[in-house]
Amino acid sequence: MAVSLRPDKVGVLVAVIAAAAAASPFATFKANRIVAGAPRSLFEALPPTGAAILAAVLAVAVVVALLRTPGWLRLAAALAALGALAVAIGAVPAHLTPEGDRLARVGPSTGFWLSLVAFAVMAADASIRLRLGPLARIVAVLLVALGVALLLRTGAWDGLSVMKEYAGRSDAFWREAGRHVALALGSLAAAIVVGIPLGVLCHRVPAVRGAILGVLNVVQTIPSIAMFGMLIAPLAAVAAAFPFLAALGVGGIGAAPAFVALFAYALLPMVANTVVGLASVPAAAVDAARGMGMTARQRLVRVEFPLAFPVILTGIRIVLVQNLGLATIAGLIGGGGFGVFVFQGLGQTAIDLVLLGALPTVALAFSAAILLDAAVEASRGRLA
Amino acid sequence: MTPVGIAFRLLVLVLMVAFLANPGLFEPLLLPLTRNGAPAIYVQGDLVALTLNHLAIVAMATGAATIIAVGLAMLVSRPSGVEFLPLSRSIVNIGQTFPPVAVLAIAVPLVGFGDRPALIALFLYGLLPIFENALVGLTGVPAAVADAARGMGLTPRQILFRVDLPLALPLILSGVRLSAVIALSTAAIGSTVAAKTLGEVIIAGLLSGNTAFVVQGGLLVAGLAILIDGVFVAAERFAAHRVGALQLRTA
Questions:
Q1: What phi and psi values does residue A67 have, to the nearest 5 degrees?
Q2: pLDDT tens-digit profile of A152-207?
Q3: Are B226 and B184 in contact (CB under 8 A)?
Q4: Which end of chain B is more exposed for a tag (fewer CB within 10 A), N or C?
């Protein structure tokens, strides 16, 4: 047993972050929406029993992390710690807000966020040690999403300042959420439809490859806010010249320039990954297909695409995650999306409103990355 | 770099210097983009000062990110840090999914408005490409080279500094290049939190509906990105050339 007393190195990292969290304020209390917050420690923020239970759960999880324990136990302890944190933060507002005070705002502070980081690292490390397969990871993401949905649905977080921002504009929130996702997915679809044939063209005709990839590379250097802005004038001109397009919603400001900008940034990863994917198809496989009498089109559809698919799917993953993040910029030019809340919030120095836009954006990009990474791995496994 | 590539970058450099020295020269080109007699050239702030501050923010953030990211990659690629290797890979992978606007916005409550949230966002965002590339470079040193170095009696520290790092240098530089180009673009978004960068010009244009401002701000940032990209590509070639010589000697 003497060996097991040597601490686990990742566990030491978790413990250091958790210790820093314990030394930081757990929550902030603000008299109203705009003023700076006052820090509250864990034992100030929660009733004594609640604070003691949370501290005990977190302490046990840190001990599990420090010792050389099996992977499933580490995962269970990390998830228990994360769940306890999620429930506890929802109980803080009721304890801190004076009776009848409708202006006060209570939100998580450094201590809460650091604890979240510590145990998220522990959970990620445990899932690596358990070698969770693609399917298990997809199920894990869905379970976490379900847990968050449950906490939101039951109103457990309703007292938190971000949720108060939401309560005032729930209609606008879902409208912008829909626009955000529509912008990201729509421009991804357009980039797939245009980018894959362009990639095939680059693969078949090396003479145009340098020119197409060179132009797309220069497009990537244009800063995103400028790209969104520069498209306003040409699209306004297009809408003025072709009234039927204007009737379809094409215009100088709004979703059209945002859509075109996202599409322009998405093309390079799509084309480049299609080219790399097709180039990685073994020459022997193509020769065999030719020997079987397949036409060029049959070879492309039945041999080259299936073999290049994991690399093309990686391109789709890059584009989707990038689009979900970049779509926030649309908020600056009237294109909608979660950026609307981020920039409104920055304008009013209302940080809770900023978070109302930023947190769902991060959550969307994050889940899209995990889901598509799992899909890429599954598609590679199918080929092998 | 092809002669066309070099000529293109020289042209970008000349145009940028000419514009910053005397923006009035370009007024006829930008005037058609304005409406209702709005000014074509941004005069609310000094374009040269904004350009220099933009570059300074990017240089500081990318420099700090390089030191930290290469240091971390050195730690986890040594035998004593190997337990952190898979974990750090997946943290890097997931960290890259954080949208720059969200990082910028979340930094504001911590440090207030101005250059500081931009510096923090650029630093955090810049870590990932450098770390990823440094890790690939440091863990991808051919086993034969490492064996030869040990056989020559080099200590682990000497192997790190005299073999692994020089061999990984082209890849590390490529990571720094990616980081710097992303940082240039993200620094422009930094003006939404009042950072003094060229984004100020773009945002002034967006707010007043003046496309001339948007275009001149955007093209200045794009020009900087193209030039910095060129400098790093040249540096990578130089480093790779030296490594090529080293590989020949060790082979």
A1: -80, 160
A2: 999 889 989 899 899 989 999 999 999 999 999 999 999 999 999 999 999 989 88
A3: no
A4: C
What spatial distance separates the first Cα and last Cα of chain B, rounded to whole Å? Answer: 28
Where do the domains of chain A lie?
Answer: 3-131, 170-383
Calculate ∠ Cα A161-A165-A169, nearest 5°.
Answer: 160
Interface contact B87-A365, CB threshold 8 A = no
Using the predicted structure, report yes or no on whether residue A319 has a pLDDT greater than 70.
Answer: yes
Rounded to 5°, angle at Cα A248 from A242 and A249? 95
B 165-204 near A (Cβ less than 8 A):
181, 184-185, 188-189, 192-193, 199, 202-203
Q: Does A115 touch chain B (CB under 8 A)?
A: no
B102 to A328: CB separation less than 8 angstroms, yes or no = yes
User: Is A254 an 8 Å CB contact of chain B?
Assistant: no
Task: CATH number for B3-25+38-250: choose from 3.40.50.1000, 1.10.3720.10, 3.40.50.2000, 3.50.50.60.
Answer: 1.10.3720.10
Contacts with B, A 341-360, CB within 8 Å: 342-343, 345-346, 349, 351, 354-355, 357-359
The domain ranges of chain B are: 3-25+38-250
Q: A328 to chain B: which residues are within 8 Å by CB?
A: 99, 101-102
* Chain B touched by A261 (CB under 8 Å): no
Tell me the backbone φ, ψ of residue B44, rounded to 5 degrees: -65, -25
Q: How far is A34 from chain B (nearest CA, A)?
A: 11
Pairwise CA distance, residues A376 & B201, whole Å = 41
Q: Which residues of A touch B12 (CB under 8 A)?
A: none
Q: Which of A44, A338, A343, A11 is nearest to A177 (CA)?
A: A338
* Tokens read off for A119: 């145990």
May I ask the CATH class of domain A170-383?
A: mainly alpha
Tens-place pLDDT, residues A333-346: 888 899 999 988 88
CA distance B212 to B29: 9
> Hey, how many other C-beta atoms are within 10 angstroms of the C-beta on B236?
18
The verdict on B11 touching A (C-beta cutoff 8 Å) is no
Question: CB–CB of A324/A361 below 8 Å?
Answer: yes
Mean predicted confidence (pLDDT) in B41-58: 90
Whether the CB of B25 is below 8 Å from some CB of chain A: the reply is: no
ipTM value: 0.77
Q: What tokens appear for A296 in the block? A: 């060029």
Strand-pair category, A105-108 with A38-40: unpaired
Q: How far, rounded to the nearest angstrom, does the alpha carbon of residue A96 sit from its chain's CA centroid?
A: 31
| Residue B157, Cβ density class (10 Å: 0-12 exposed, 13-18 middle, ≥19 buried) | exposed
From chain A residues 125-154, the ones with a CB under 8 A of any chain B CB are 125, 128
Across the interface, of B33, B87, B193, the residue whose CB is closest to A124 is B87
Question: Is-contact B98 A321, C-beta < 8 A?
Answer: no
Element (H, E) at A40: strand A38-40
- Give every CB contact of residue A207 below 8 A, 6+ residues apart in sequence: none
Biggest alpha carbon–alpha carbon distance for chain A: 82
- Per CB-CB distance under 8 Å, the chain B contacts of A13 are 84
